[in-house]
Amino acid sequence: MDIDKIKALAEILAAQNLSLIEVCEGDHKIRLEKDCGCLSPAPSQQQTQLPAPPALPLSVGDGQQAVDFNKLIEIKSPLVGIFYAAAAPDAEPFV
Q1: Over the stretch 73-92, which tens digit does the pLDDT of each residue have?
Q2: What is the pTM of this model?
């Protein structure tokens, strides 16, 4: 590889804003690399303190109301939380 090709590669490296270029030509191999200065310290983030939320007014009441379980309707379900996409494994899906 002659010096003109190496200069051309260096120009490509600079013009295209590359940090590395590697070329293999027969038995010759050239690798051009430049320090791009990419490793800059991360900007420090200053923690800001948020203002405290306003205090909620306390409601003065007689507390929770008692639930009368005698007025509720009991629903019995033997299979809670089971989903069937079809009536049987080999059947058509419901939807």
Answers
A1: 877 777 667 778 889 989 99
A2: 0.36
